[in-house]
Design goal:
Radius of gyration: 17 Å
Keywords: Transferase
Largest sheet: 5 strands, parallel
Order of helices and strands: EHHEHEHEEHEHEHHE
Helix content: 25-40%
Shape: globular
GO molecular function: transferase activity
Protein name: Beta-1,3-glucosyltransferase
Strand order of the largest sheet: 7-6-4-5-8
Number of strands: 8
Distance between the termini: 28 Å
Pfam families: GT-D
Structural class: alpha/beta
Strand content: 5-15%
Length: 248
């Protein structure tokens, strides 16, 4: 599963975004990926904003209206398949007016990795699942820590490291646009990969019953893209799960 959000669309249109500088090679690969037909092996996901936008909060309606007013023709030029997955599959909570359905959606997601050995590919500030039970039902967790910004500059190195640890594991990629390329490459080589960026923030917000995007002090928060004023909490379990740190 490979998800394209507003950040990836901005990159495809030629712009840098806060956590990834524009890179022609990256954009070329993303264009190749977004043009793929979805199948049982690879599901391409787009923002589910083309019809009933009134399911969103008022601020999300405004955001996606501006986005679609700007990029409607661009979407048509990029993608022409008959069906797509929804980018919101891993973001089912904060932007939706009806937040009661999120718990069921997260339960379905958690059932995917229940009893599975996981390999998480994430940025240095992400700490996905730390302080919550998002991955509590997994059999085991390993993590490869990557740069939080412009990770694509290390994509080949990250991919090589993944192959060292991926055998028998479900791979969860949470690494911005670089996750698209990694998921694409790994899927072609027979690995099961889910691109589920920002799922941790969504889950935290749901657990606290948040109505707005509250910033976390101890790890990355979705849409707070510059990772300022984070105070990491020492966590022995998290540290023990790290099998490679490529963030330095």
């Amino acid at each position: 599963m490979i998800r394209f959000g507003d950040g990836e669309i901005n990159l495809l249109a030629g712009y840098s975004i806060p956590y990834q500088d524009y890179d022609e090679e990256l954009v070329s690969t993303m264009r190749e990926i977004i043009s793929l037909p979805s199948s049982e092996d690879t599901v391409i996901c787009l923002p589910d904003i083309f019809q009933n936008r009134f399911i969103f909060t008022w601020w999300a309606i405004d955001f996606w209206k501006i986005h679609l007013d700007h990029y409607a023709d661009f979407y048509q030029s990029l993608s022409s398949d008959s069906w797509y997955g929804s980018t919101f599959v891993s973001r089912p909570y904060i932007d939706f007016e009806d937040k009661t359905q999120a718990n069921e959606q997260f339960a379905k997601l958690k059932s995917i990795w229940k009893g599975r050995d996981l390999l998480l590919i994430e940025g240095a500030t992400s700490r996905s699942g730390v302080g919550n039970d998002l991955f509590a039902d997994a059999k085991s967790i390993q993590r490869i820590i990557c740069p939080s910004h412009s990770a694509y500059s290390r994509v080949d190195e990250i991919e090589k490291e993944i192959y060292k640890h991926a055998n028998g594991r479900l791979i969860l990629c949470m690494l911005g646009p670089t996750a698209k390329v990694l998921a694409y490459r790994l899927t072609k080589n027979g690995y099961q990969v889910l691109d589920i960026g920002h799922i941790d923030s969504e889950y935290e917000w749901m657990k606290m019953g948040a109505k707005t995007k509250i910033k976390f002090n101890h790890k990355h928060t979705a849409e707070y893209n510059f990772d300022q004023d984070i105070e990491f909490i020492e966590d022995e379990t998290y540290t023990s799960q790290i099998v490679a740190d490529l963030s330095k």
